[in-house]
Amino acid sequence: VAPPKPPEGLQVGPTSAEDAFIQHIRAALAARLGDAPEGEVWIGDDAAVLSWGPGPLLLTTDSVVAGVHADLDLVGLDDLGWKALSVAVSDIAAMGGRPRHAVVAIGVPAGSAPGPLIEGLLDAAAAWHCPIVGGDLSGAPVVLVAVAVTGALEEGSAPAVRRSGASTGDHLFVTGALGSSAAGLRRLRSAEAATRGEFADDPLVRAHRRPRARVDEGWTARRAGASAMMDVSDGLSIDLHRLADASGVGFALPLAEGATLAEALGGGEDYELIIATPDAPALEAAFAGADLPAPQRIGTVTADPGQRVLGDQPLARLGWEHRIG
Amino acid sequence: VAPPKPPEGLQVGPTSAEDAFIQHIRAALAARLGDAPEGEVWIGDDAAVLSWGPGPLLLTTDSVVAGVHADLDLVGLDDLGWKALSVAVSDIAAMGGRPRHAVVAIGVPAGSAPGPLIEGLLDAAAAWHCPIVGGDLSGAPVVLVAVAVTGALEEGSAPAVRRSGASTGDHLFVTGALGSSAAGLRRLRSAEAATRGEFADDPLVRAHRRPRARVDEGWTARRAGASAMMDVSDGLSIDLHRLADASGVGFALPLAEGATLAEALGGGEDYELIIATPDAPALEAAFAGADLPAPQRIGTVTADPGQRVLGDQPLARLGWEHRIG
């Protein structure tokens, strides 16, 4: 028979665009993180094959959609890629784990060049020592990236730190100043388009463009006896309520300082960790011992789940509700 | 101080839409698959905490975007959800593994009701015994779902089956007739909108709406000594080239039967498995012993990577190139 003619929708080529792209990503990843260890299979088969120790598997997913979580007039495609992987790693950090592997589902409009997006993903993979071991490339009306990340604890160690473990009298900490990302976004928005590049390395702008996952902080807090932990992705004043909800407790915060109050409470995407612990000196000593910035004490866990106060006022449940319509 | 006023973009509410949604999914999942085993944490924390045995971890991701991989004029949102989880499970099946857990990143336009989408995801989670243990909900310009799935092999068993293991003289099988999904799509397209519901349970339409992951088939083939395996997602005539490329071999196929030739070769999304094996009788006996439909022998692996023939003609590399522009 003659070779079959392609039906509508089929294309013919020596290799598909997807296959070529996979080759590029595999090579670029190897340049940053080396080849897969003996016995492991990373990108290029139906699924990755990964060795796993005796401990539990942590697993999470997060997604970043252009125009929803990132304004490509203000940040680069590389920043979007960085963010997508880093915010998923942050979820692992918030359990006290270390990231191990990522798989990445990417959607891009036809004709767009996803190269910078991939670069940002690879930069984050290198920064968090989290190789991209598989992925999926797809057409989509806007740029979007969904990342799933595995995480591990060391063998025989303290268990993963959940949101639900806070007890009355525990001390509440955050790992750093809140509101930086929101302040950086405000700075970018107020700048003329032509001058935005000048702000690229401004610390607040950088906090918005290249959020950090607090992996060492989460790991250290878990080992120092943290009772509950989560990352601040939607803003302290909604995420702190979530931790209190999960734990069935209340909280009392003295007045916060730094940035503007609204930004510190409501400005999301800082990815600092909220930590509850019965033993504040142990936490502070562990952070000092690990050469980490001192955690900031923000308040106390209280018994009454109805008590949610800032100073002497109720703290409203404020947060970025961009995530679902 | 007075409670801070919400800056632009912030909303206030007793619980966020996302939190309520998570509660719904958790309850619906428990109704289908029970609660998380002791010691595991599923939906609702920063990351899932999962027990894992001594064997390797399989990990994959796939995504489905409305208008790209699914036409919502022809199939339902529930079908899109089903497909998103099932095609990721198919990747695990193609390594010879069983799915263990899924995490799901969902994007939906503001104001749309994702309920049917979730139902389809949960139906697939129940069908493949693959609990959804975490997720992310986001706004997006169109409905999209990215699913990452873990998979496991039993301890001390044959290793995962890669694409690259085919050797000269191996026999090539597929697990079932190809072209069903393409034929079902054609049937839906040719039907008047008002009559499409009548076709919902037509076997070809069902193959398109509710593709099956060949988990038992892949598991059985691995244990019966398969040397290479992959699933047919983009069409036999591109996926067979991919397997041959990975293995550095050629292939010779006698003429195929069933559906139309072009659909069988080029029509993607059947998710049947391509299996190479040096021991055809062992494969056939194992499928019979597992009460699985007999695998269909389609050809032979040849030594020359340049030989890719159907009958006596070269087989062009045809495939659906919808995946990246």
Structure characterization notes:
The structure is a homodimer of 325-residue chains. Helix content of chain A is 31%, strand content 23%. By secondary structure, chain A is an alpha+beta fold. The model of chain A is unreliable at 1-15 and 321-325 (pLDDT under 50). The interface between A and B is large, with 113 and 114 residues.
**Percent strand of chain A:** 15-25%
Indicate the multimeric state: homodimer
What's the SSE pattern of chain A?
EHEEHEHEEEHHHEHEHEHEEEE
Number of strands of chain A: 14
List the defining traits of the structure above.
homodimer; 325 residues; alpha+beta; 9 helices; 31% helix; globular; disordered N terminus; disordered C terminus
Helix and strand topology:
The structure is a homodimer of 325-residue chains.
Chain A: E1 10-12, H1 17-33, E2 48-50, E3 57-65, H2 77-93, E4 98-108, H3 115-127, E5 132-139, E6 144-152, E7 171-174, H4 180-190, H5 203-209, H6 215-223, E8 228-231, H7 236-247, E9 250-253, H8 261-266, E10 273-277, H9 280-289, E11 296-302, E12 308-310, E13 313-314, E14 318-320
Parallel strand pairs in A: 4-5, 9-12
Antiparallel strand pairs in A: 3-6, 4-6, 7-10, 7-11, 8-10, 9-11, 12-13
Helix pairs in contact in A: 1-3, 2-3, 2-6, 4-5
